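Quick question about two entries, pasted in order.
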Amino acid sequence: HNQMNAALPKTIRRTQTQGRRQVAQHTQMVGAPSEMAPLPERPPEMRGMSLSDLLAFRDDNLAWLDTEEFNSYAKKTQRKTMYDVVPELIMQATADRKCSFSELGPARAVQYFVSHWWGEEFLKFIAALERFAKTVSEKDPVFWICSFANNQHHVNLGAGLEDSPFEHALAAPSCKGVLMVLDSEATTLTRVWCLYEVMRTHQLGLKFNLATHNGVLTAFSEESSENQKLETSPQLREDVATLASKLVDIDVETAECSFDSDKK
């Protein structure tokens, strides 16, 4: 175990240490058994991550996240994505407890459900959350992100869609809206789970927003300033054009997912 730990990038080893530090308070309260006992499972809708938590996670691992390599999912060379973050950071930090990453910290009720594609660069994903956060009233909004909220050692999707953690988070009384994060090619709109989340957003009557790392593409909240509403850039306008072209071609039948069984 020590040899494997030494071989990990410094940033990953630091995340492991932080994960163990976060559960230390729990073990002090219940006693310190010879082996760490599993944490009591938290309701899915209480597994949110605040923006400040996510920014700290990003900053602690910035050097590693900023390195490029070929991504087999995106089929191109790019910086680290959620496909890298989950096995190398999240699963490493939760290895002892076998729980979701969010359960290493305090319970936080979902305020904004995030729909996204794992193949986008993680740094751009966080930048999109930062952009969106400037348009809402909360000083430190809480986001529900599947990779942080689900136990990646054993993803339990429930007996059916109505019992999935996604549904619990979307239908939670505390959930104020849904944020769909798009990459430069709006790949999110070609993913089965993301289209399902759009459908449920409409059925539940939740507010829906679209954002990229360049800014928010859809309606701003009433609390947004006029400067924010008028803020545009050539990059953001390009994102809007990409979105428009993708909306024309949305087809649930041809939408993709990581596991073919999910389509059933």
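Here is the second entry:
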Amino acid sequence: MEASKKHPLDTFTHLSITYHESLPHVTHIKLNRPRKRNAINALMWREIGEAFRQIGTIGDGTRCVLLSGNGKGFCGGIDITDEKFFSGISPDSSSDDDESSIDMARKALAFKPQITEMQAAFTALEECPVPVVAAIHGACVGAGIDMTCCADVRICSPNTVFSIREARLGLAADVGTLQRFPKLVGFGSRVRELCFTGEDFSSEDALNIGFVSRISKSESQLLGEANQIISKIIANSPVAVTVTKSSLNYSRDHTVREGLDHVA
């Protein structure tokens, strides 16, 4: 049984990576910081990038990834208690105003490589050669939205609460939501309202704007409904599915003519 085999990527601290318990050729990745509501610290961020860069490319036999979160929620956003995220970018209150402003500008520039690295970690989901199906429950906030924007299929439980929270924290979402979310659901008034206000939106809102494709009947049935989708995906030719994902991603960012040339 594939499920009884140890997955070659089951080596991370904050990710649980196993073969699916019942579906062949499926890797199940769980965000695994339940006591922190799966808030993403610096180590977890690196692990997400490392895992998705390798899935489907190391002879693991993966044709589809199920992404979920352990505990009461999918992802509570960035772990703002992790000093490694923000070390060196807080202004020194002991400096005079002019010096503090100059230092803050320099520190912000110095922070850019870290932001680029964080962006690349989530882009790894998008560039993963096999489809990623995200099963979302509970809170999906901030970085959780950034991450799920990179999944290929998203479904959620009825109790899911979403929020593009960054504006409420004095930040602009800089890890992908402002670029990907409107391409998924459109650039209309409701989308801008959600981004500007940082207010919560429900599973029904997410379904209505097209961010998720379905809502499970209950939280307990969420993974079962995700499994139904995945079973249909893995029944198809893995080559056809991989090429389809590549073409969809390319065509999203190019003209129709360029997309046709890419897939020809």
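Reply: The longest helix spans residues 97-127. The chain is about 45% helix and 15% strand. Hope that helps.
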